[in-house]
Amino acid sequence: MGLKEYAAKREFEKTPEPKPGLGPQADRRVFVVHKHAARALHYDLRLELEGMLKSWAVPKGPSLNPSSKRLAVMVEDHPLDYKDFEGVIPEGNYGAGSVILWDRGFYHHPSARDENESEKLLLDGFRKGDMKFVLEGEKLHGEFALVKTRKDGKSWLLLKKKDRYATNGEILLESRSVVSHKTLEEMFEAGAGKFVQAKETKPDPPSRSDGKRRPEGCADQTDAA
Predict the structure, then answer these.
(1) Which portions of the chain are predicted below pLDDT 70?
(2) Which residue of 38, 151, 210, 215 has the fewest CB atoms within a 10 Å radius of its CB?
């Protein structure tokens, strides 16, 4: 996808977000999860791949419950420098609102023996629409998968695999940044004044006529930064 779409959506003299550019790859691949109070409150999962951050907007946020299927809408690639970004995107800009680094850490393919093999397997999985990975974050741990749906070219499902980190507990109750330790409200107030609560997604997805539940968050399409 590249960074052209990222650059086209932003005026960098008006937003504190990082300018586009490929970052140098370190020994280990990083991931971050941003919590973003834009038009609708959502989370952004970003995985380092090919010197950029492949990015998915997750309206319901990640879950450690293997029975939860969370919609993940693929958005534009972000520069690697975005892994360190949190702050307030000013009104009038794409994705306006407060952003915190909800989680961060490293990730790898579950079958890889080294980082080079991990990068290859991750890229193969991404291209096939079935990407398996292990997160080593401050909040998220264990094996996950991103599986592309047949709905369109952007809709994926974020799944937690059954392992020792799986739980029915609600990880999203941990609401503070892992860097500044601020909430979204505190981040906004520190940067721009009064916080306006973003629209939250509905807690329960509607049932289908066949009795099966739709993936959580499937009705939500967000403008994700």
Answers:
(1) 1, 192-225
(2) 210
d(CA 144, CA 22) in angstroms, rounded, equals 26
Q: In the prediction, which pLDDT does 64 show?
A: 97
Q: What is the span of the domain harbouring residue 134?
A: 4-191
CA–CA separation, 217 vs 219, rounded Å?
A: 6
Q: How far is CA 115 from CA 19, 25, 62, 119, 205, in A?
A: 27, 11, 25, 6, 38
CB within 8 Å of 151: residues ≥ 6 apart: none
Direct distance between the N- and C-terminal alpha carbons of the chain, in angstroms, rounded to an integer? 15
Q: How many angstroms separate the Cα of 96 from the Cα of each of 40, 101, 118, 196, 197?
A: 11, 16, 35, 12, 13
Alpha carbon dihedral 138, 139, 144, 148, in 10-degree steps, equals -110
159 belongs to a structural domain: yes
CA–CA dist 136, 164 (Å, integer): 13
What does pTM read for this prediction? 0.84
Q: Is residue 210 part of a domain?
A: no
Classify residue 202: in a domain, yes or no.
no
Give the residue among 38, 83, 81, 77 at the shortest CA–CA distance from 59: 38
| Domain-embedded: residue 114 | yes
Q: What is the pLDDT of residues 105-133, one digit of tens each?
A: 999 999 999 999 999 999 999 999 999 99
